[in-house]
Amino acid sequence: MLRITFSLMLFCFCLHLVGCQSNQKVEKDNKSKQYLMVLGIAQDAGFPHIDNPHEWENYKKGITKKELATSLGLVDLASKQKYLFEATPDMPLQLHNLESEHLKTNRLIDGVFLTHAHIGHYTGLMHFGREAMGAKKIPVFAMPKMKIFLEQNGPWSQLVSLKNIEIFPTENESLVELTPNLNVTPFLVPHRDEFSETVGYKINSPAKSALFIPDINKWKLWEKDIVEEVKKVDYAFLDATFLKNGEIPRDMSEVPHPFIEETIALFKSESESIKSKIIFIHFNHSNQAMNRDNSDRKLLEKEGFHFAEEGAIFPM
Predict the structure, then answer these.
(1) 10 Å Cβ neighbour count for 301?
(2) Which pairing describes strands 112-113 and 199-204: parallel, antiparallel, or unpaired?
(3) What is the bridge-based pairing of β-strands 138-142 and 165-169?
(4) What share of the chain is helix, strand, coil (3-state, %, to 5)?
């Protein structure tokens, strides 16, 4: 396994995990110096969704609330460092929330981990550019194809040439050590890889570990067994783009994701303690399970499954 260890000069690029196994926001454990927090739960285009007047009217009337695109924050209070998973179109607000509610330092963010080149996962990088923040060498962790895509295609290439961002290359199954207490390992997953490969992440501390797989094709297409992978960790943030087949008026094979109903079927015979490790995330606007009052969601919660909510904290 390739081991990437940061020098003291890069020590400021550290992460901090936020966690909780509840569907409601919980207070940070005073003893937890590292934690993950949920900064967004929606599919790439967010909620309300473009060209859906009914959703926008309900939002304007206060019937529903806006949901930001899927992102996690990772905080290390001991090292005073914070990291972001995914650069979403909602990144300015998500970074503000991370700073104002969790950790404010003289650096807006110590690093950004990208999963792939679909709009909800990397286009937020534009806010680091000269038209917005005019940032200086924000560390961006990217796989080989993702790195090339950013370097060779505008406007992202300008972020590199102007040194708004600095790309740190990562490799499949290669550990990135951020602090003595935290490390991250990317791993390839099958997905629609038009412009880059797609990865999930395993996030580790001495006490706990987490999986983050916001986008993947059907579980059977992955070389690994998702049930066994979930058993190895404390938290598993899994792709919940769609609740069930027929949810949208198009051939859903064109947008392959593991439906929630397919994922729960794989865990049907597992104990509640295993099911409780799963936190569904990355909900399409059509997915009624994003609504905490949805009857299907309530039944799944009784079985032990969890649904990500913005602000939830998961101690590491």
Answers:
(1) 17
(2) unpaired
(3) parallel
(4) 25, 25, 50
Nearest CA to 72 out of 53, 89, 48, 88 is that of 88
Pairing of strands 71-76, 34-40: antiparallel
Contact between 288 and 261 under an 8 Å Cβ cutoff? The reply is no
Cβ contacts of 223 within 8 Å, gap of 6 or more: none
Which residues of the chain register pLDDT less than 50?
Answer: 1-30
Strand intervals (E) in 77-191: 81-85, 112-113, 138-142, 165-169, 175-179, 182-188
DSSP class per residue in 223-291? SS-HHHHHHTSSEEEEE-S-SSTT-SSS-GGGS----HHHHHHHTTTS-HHHHTTEEEE-B-TT-GGGS
The pLDDT, as a whole number, for residue 12 is: 38
Supply the DSSP symbol for 27: P
Domains and CATH numbers, the chain: 3-315 (3.60.15.10)
CA distance 307 to 282: 10
pLDDT of residue 25: 41
Phi, psi of 63 (to 5 degrees): -75, -40
CB 237 within 8 A of CB 193: no
* Cβ contacts of 9 within 8 Å, gap of 6 or more: none
Q: Which strand ranges, in their side-by-side order, compose the sheet holding 199-204?
A: 3-5, 175-179, 182-188, 199-204, 209-213, 235-239, 278-281, 306-307
- Neighbouring residues of 216: CB distance < 8 A, sequence distance ≥ 6: 189, 190, 191, 198, 200, 222, 239, 257, 258
The pLDDT assigned to 252 comes to: 76
**Which of 138, 123, 102, 106 has its CA nearest to residue 310?**
102
Q: Is the dihedral of CA 153, 218, 310, 137 positive or negative?
A: negative
**Contact of 196 with 186, CB cutoff 8 Å:** no
Q: How far apart are CA 42 and CA 305, in angstroms?
A: 18
